[in-house]
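In response to reviewer comment 3 from the previous cycle, which asked for concrete evidence that the modeling workflow produces usable outputs, we include below a single protein chain processed end to end. The sequence was submitted unchanged, and the resulting structure tokens are shown without manual editing.
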Amino acid sequence: MIARFLWFLLILICAPLGLLASEATMILEFQDGQNQAWSLREVDELLFDEDNLVIHSETGIVIHPLVEIARIDFEIGDLTDAGEAADVVRLLHLFQNHPNPFNPTTRIDFDLPEDGPAELSIFAVNGKRIRTLLSEQRSAGSHSLNWDGRDDSARQVSSGAYFYVLKAPGVRESRKMILIR
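The workflow returned the following structure tokens.
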């Protein structure tokens, strides 16, 4: 009887969050231990903009500072077709560089949802563009570039925080990285 009650209680607590749903779900775990979940059917766009996670959904725009987020999980659930799996993948375009922090080079991976012009640039924290790694037509799919910690004039940049920004059709995302000399 107690086990059945606990199971029912678990369903009541988790079901509104979509955690037990058979559809794909994004779950944010915050530093304070709170969780927030979205059905990926409701999420139109997921962006990393400067120091924030920006979620565009059917109900509006939600902005969460990245320092408040401890973890982002995706519960895939029971995907019934390849289209649903592709929708999960399309939510993230620009991935965290690795290694991070880095010295002397780092790798930046990104996905493009469609063919077209793509630009990947490195910016200092003051907003000054210091390096353009990519500015050309690219095909849809996965891509990878390395940055050697140098500016457009091939001079080594100093230790510190930098932002890399990906601009392409349907994509404008940025991430922060740390260079340690």
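The first helix runs from residue 2 to 14. We consider this sufficient to address the reviewer's concern, and the full set will be provided in the supplementary archive.
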